[in-house]
Amino acid sequence: xxxxxxxxxxxxxxxxxxxxxxxxxxxxxxxxxxxxxxxxxxxxxxxxxxxxxxxxxxxxxxxxxxxxxxxxxxxxxxxxxxxxxxxxxxxxxxxxxxxxxxxxxxxxxxxxxxxxxxxxxxxxxxxxxxxxxxxxxxxxxxxxxxxxxxxxxxxxxxxxxxxxxxxxxxxxxxxxxxxxxxxxxxxxxxxxxxxx
Length: 196
What we know:
Layout: H1 3-33, E1 36-43, E2 46-53, E3 82-85, E4 89-91, E5 94-96, E6 99-107, E7 111-117, E8 138-163, E9 166-184
């Protein structure tokens, strides 16, 4: 192997090492400011799981500023938020088939669109800050009213609350929350014909 080839390979190896170090430093720093979390809901044989990253408010005005109104949001920070269900469910009255989805939202002043997308993405946004979501893979979009909170939620939160026959997926941050009603899809019972 000649010396120029050895030099090229050495430079290439050092470059790859530097890129890997930068990647892990950036990833560590973003996770330090927006740690990841997984929340789940289990009832009988239904399990729902949400993986997301939790940024802090840090004195910023969130909705209508940091998170613009009427624009698709990755619903957290860092990676795209994911939603997984092991059963077919009804989300605000509409069928969502069992499976794993990326979860996107469009916050508005009085309501939010909640978007379940069939595609998995490498990150929530690209290098230009544009969300990765491709609308042609949307499996379900529902719109739910937003609520004004009395107390500030400092760290972005997603959690589940049970109420009667429904479980609500609650998304809350700053002075805003939305509650998405979910119910397990009931399979129709077929009555056996009566013998006369």
